[in-house]
Amino acid sequence: MNEEDALVATAVQRVLKDVAIAVDVIVARLSAGGRLFYIGTGTSGRLGVLDASECPPTFGVSPELVQGVIAGGYDACYRAVEASEDDAEAGLRDLEKRGFTKGDVLVGIAASGRTPYTVGAISYARSLRCIY
Fold first, then answer.
1. Which of 6, 43, 59, 110 fits a disulfide with 118 by CB distance 3.0 to 4.6 angstroms?
2. Which residues are catalytic?
3. Does residue 86 contact residue 113 with C-beta atoms inside 8 Å?
4. How much is the pTM?
5. Mean per-residue pLDDT for 95-105?
């Protein structure tokens, strides 16, 4: 486990420029009145929901500013909602329900990088030009 943990810094270093670009895009969108959405499934989705839930008490912002969206809805935060990650259209629908717009920004979280729910949501955001 320690050997794997040691790989984290190197992995982050490889994408640090992309992270900086993403942060700049997010700051610009939030400054212009947009919102930040995290979207994912399973543990990845739970981490997005957790981070979003910490923003209001930590930074004194509205819960609407940073939102976590997880496949399978609220129940998936504390128990597995089987097959919810396989529905690419569900990610799009979940964003539409929250009023996701061109002025918002989406961060997709997926360990594999190919979860249909998350990829579907990202494709929708790209169609609106919400991802850099």
1. 110
2. 54, 85
3. no
4. 0.91
5. 95
